[in-house]
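user: can you give me the structure for this one chain? tokens are fine.
assistant: on it. calling the predictor now.
[tool input]
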Amino acid sequence: ATGAVSVPIYQTSTYAQESLGNHKGFEYARTQNPTRSALEKNIAALEGAKFGFAFASGMSATDAVLKLAKAGDHVIVGDNTYGGTFRLFNKVLSNYGIEFDFVDTSDITNVEKAFKPNTKMVFVETPTNPIMTVTDLQAVSDVAHAHGARVVCDNTFMSPYLQQPMNFGVDIVVHSTTKYLNGHSDSIGGFAALNNEEDAEWIKFIQNSIGAILSPFDSFLVLRGTKTLAVRMEAHDKNGRAVATFLAEHPKVKKVYYPGLLSHPQHELASRQQKGFGGMVAFETGSLESAKKVLENVKLCTLAESLGGVESLISHPATMTHASVPADKRESLGITDGLVRVSVGIEDVEDIIEDLDQALN
């Protein structure tokens, strides 16, 4: 009504009602808030979805989506999933009678073999965190739907700008909005986007019942972030490619994980289902000592967990993001003590490369 160009922050816990049982569409801020509603419409549109729900964190969004499963149901999960997701599934939800099998979803045969009569969901991340393995979303969707199961994709690493999983048959997309959607390392949030009305009603019910909602101020920050998503992702993608190419040629680097490199085993698949390759790069230094040297000698890159902000962050997955994954499982996935992950920012790429070069040397 005011003509405000930016969505205002509705910092209120409740709303005045006109008469008994007669409100203006808003009654209590856990149930709905105009700032959050604007964000929910915004990200749903970016993902090509009819419905969207904003949560207090990426983990609460994932948890809400998993509440579509019941005790006795079986869920197939990508084996190289984010450590927090692994912990939620393995240590929390498994206590409530939901059965999880972790398989390498980059090979569709593994997915087909993992199905049981009670399989109700397949949960994938692509590219994976931090090894950047790519899953064929259309192939997984086709197999899952043939078995009557939903497909959920964590699209945090790509953002809706670089990948839209629903174009490949995925039923539900989840995000940690903390990362690229917000893009400025100053807000924690999560999101679930979907098209099925019945599932959406249940997730809305869960969102209200449990109350892990995104605050009005955080909703405002993420809304602001989405305005620059396209230009930021272009910059992350351009810098990511340059950094990965530099690392691939560096004598101190044993291996680089980045789907944009022609040497990546799934480069062709990534080129097909992604609009770009993004700013996430992981590389193998060979030992904990070598990794430590890099991590402790960078000057421009910041040693910190998280990713997707405008500034370059560097981390050690084995002791940081994936510490909750058992050591033997980590090693088998390639998450070694020598692995370093870089969230390549949008700074001048020469500065980023120079920083990594001096730290490696």
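assistant: here you go. DSSP finds 13 helices and twelve strands in the chain. The chain has two domains: 34-227, 229-360.
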